[in-house]
Amino acid sequence: MKGNSLHNACLAYNGHAIRDRGKTVSLTDMWKAAGSPENREPWNWSRKEGAEFVEFVAASHNLTMEQVMITKKGKGGGTWAHWQLAMAYAKYLSPEFHAWCNSVVRAHMEGRTHQALLADRQNEALLKIRITACNAVTRLLGEARRNGGAQYAAHIMPAAFEMLGIRVPDSVIPAPLRQGNLFDALPSWSGHRPN
What we know:
Largest sheet: 4 strands, antiparallel
Strand content: 5-15%
Strand order of the largest sheet: 3-4-6-5
Number of strands: 6
Mean pLDDT: 76
C-alpha cells in the first residue's frame, strides 16, 4: 500500500505472509493467516456480514464494488480489497487477529516498522515472564521462611534468583528477609521496587 498504506511493512501473522498492493490487501492471505476458519472465507463475508460495509466504502470513495473488492479465480488468485474492508474483515475473522491488525496499523501511524512492533511484543512477553518468575521466587522464599526459618530462606535466596539470571551480590544483607520484607533488599541490586 502507498500513502495510507503499510507497503513497507513486512506483514506476517502465524508465519503467513499478508500481501498488500496500493490501497488493497489480500483478504485471502488474511483468511489463511487467521487459520482458514470455516465459513469465514472472504466471499462469504462480503456477501453476508460485510455486504453493507463494502457498499459504504465503495460509495464513500466514489468507487464501484469491483474497485473496492477484486476476486481473481484460479492459480495465484484470491480476493483483494480496500484496506478499510481488510480491517473490517479482520474483526470478522477473530478478536485476536483483529487486535493484531489494529496494532500493525497503529505502529504504522506512529512511524514504527512491523519489526519494531514485533520487538516490542517480545520485550513485553519477556517482561511478563520475568515478573511471573520473580513472583514465583518470592513465593518460594516466603514458603522457605515459613517452613525452614529466615536463615534457610536467606541461604537459598541467591540460588533462587540466579535461576532467573539475577546475581545477588554478596553485599546484599538478607536482614529484610528475616523481617519478612524481601522487597526492601531488592533496590540495592535490581533497581526495581514494586508499588
